[in-house]
Amino acid sequence: MSDRKFAVTSRLEIAYGEWNPAGARTAVLLHGWPDSPACWNAIAPVLADGGYRVLTPALRGFGPTRFRDAETPRSGQLSALGRDLLEFIDVLGLENPVLVGHDWGARAAANACGLRKGVASHLVMLSVGYGTNDPLQPISLQQARNYWYHWYMTTSRGERVVRGERNAFARQMWDTWSPAGWYSDETFDEAAKAFESEDWADIVLHSYRHRWGFAEGDPAYANDEARLHPAPRLAVPTLTLHGTADTCNHPDSSKGRESFFQGRYERHLLEGVGHFPQREAPALVSEEILRFCQTR
Fold this sequence. Notes:
The chain has helices spanning 44-49, 78-92, 104-115, 141-146, 148-152, 156-164, 166-176, 185-192, 200-211, 222-228, 277-280, 282-292, and strands at residues 5-8, 12-19, 25-30, 52-57, 66-67, 98-102, 122-126, 238-243, 265-270.
């Protein structure tokens, strides 16, 4: 990997890592919550060996990405993540990259595709079903139980924990979303460096409050919000990978989404894998990405 670089957009200085700068094709890998670009450390070299230029940006609120202006609202709304990605693509002059996202990153990548037709050659979503951003969406009682942390963060108690005990809170998710024993202390500590950003708590709290209608959005994204609700049908070839042992987003939450896609669409379940497939089963995930993206 090359030294960390920054892409300067209208609102952010987006930090990113890069593998194989001379690659013939480009893949942008977007991490989720609570994680960091380090989640791709086992996958990026494989894609680079497969001929890709690989870019791993840190999302807004996650260090070392930073806001350019102290007055910019610290919005974590999902449309903003999609717009950030489009600006990242434009600033770097990327043409039809493969977009691979996990969790928040999957929503960012899908929203970017919804906002700009033809922006990507392929979309790969890990652990998230498309069309699940609507606060009025039907969810099972099991999924409501899984989402306890969403609503906990709408309370003053939850806010105090996010601000004052962020690593313990994040680690609770790592410990309960996947089968036990899948990570080391060193792995978590590396990811947690991204949570040290002064904007992390504000972005996280706003993101979960906004997506359920408990916080107003940044007016700058009002048009994008309107275009993304209801979720637009996507023409980009899309692959969804979901672990059968995911106890954050139940695998059924990504089932039956075919009607949202106009073209090629595949969904594969990863047996025994939890919420972090890029970390838990990197060889399998890399293989699936390379296979799917060989053809349109």
